[in-house]
Design goal:
four-stranded parallel β-sheet; globular
């Protein structure tokens, strides 16, 4: 027993334990939401068998740290996903938008943005195809993180991983601000393709 007490009392172990407890606490109330081509928007969305059906239903809800919105792999969902400051996650417990099951889901954005995140950080976007109507007809971006907060704010934590964003009139992926030194920090984009877009 004395050995274990000394182990957790060392300077290296105490911060590690505190960090672990904070991460567990940050995602304690997190919920997974499922979206399926065979679901119903009147469902709770809390399991694959009780899934929502549409992008619009996803947009009608609000999300917190650790929540995940998961689309059925191999299926296509039409619409424009929108998140704002009421949906923000944290670096320890981000909001995740991705796929479940076999393969990646496709978000078909038609002439708009595929995923727009406005004035919010703490997001992971992963394992998705995000498709517009074409570089000459679409007027949006595939994934667009945008903030116009005042005061030089740096919103933390954006991860985009294993995403293909194509056929958009502007950019496949755009992250930025038009408000002075306000912007994002701790941004990582990995294993991602942005192709056949008007701007890149």
């Amino acid at each position: 027993m004395r050995t274990n007490a000394r182990l957790f009392a060392t300077p290296l172990r105490v911060p590690l334990l505190i960090l672990l407890l904070l991460m567990i606490a940050g995602s304690a109330g997190a919920t997974d939401y499922y979206v399926s081509a065979t679901g119903r928007d009147s469902n709770a969305g809390s399991s694959p068998s009780d899934a929502w059906q549409t992008v619009q239903r996803v947009n009608n809800a609000h999300y917190g740290p650790g929540d995940r919105i998961l689309f059925e792999g191999g299926r296509t969902f039409s619409g424009n996903l929108y998140f704002d400051s009421t949906d923000a996650g944290t670096p320890a417990a981000p909001v995740t938008v991705g796929s479940y099951g076999t393969g990646r889901a496709t978000i078909y954005a038609a002439d708009g943005d595929g995923i727009l995140v406005y004035n919010a950080g703490g997001f992971v976007v992963r394992d998705l195809y995000i498709i517009g109507s074409g570089a000459t007809t679409n007027a949006g971006d595939g994934i667009f993180f945008f903030t116009d907060l005042a005061g030089g704010v740096k919103l933390p934590y954006v991860r985009i991983d294993h995403v293909d964003a194509s056929r958009f009139g502007d950019y496949g992926i755009l992250i930025g601000s038009n408000s002075g030194t306000t912007g994002y920090r701790d941004v990582r984009i990995s294993y991602t393709v942005a192709a056949d877009n008007q701007m890149g």
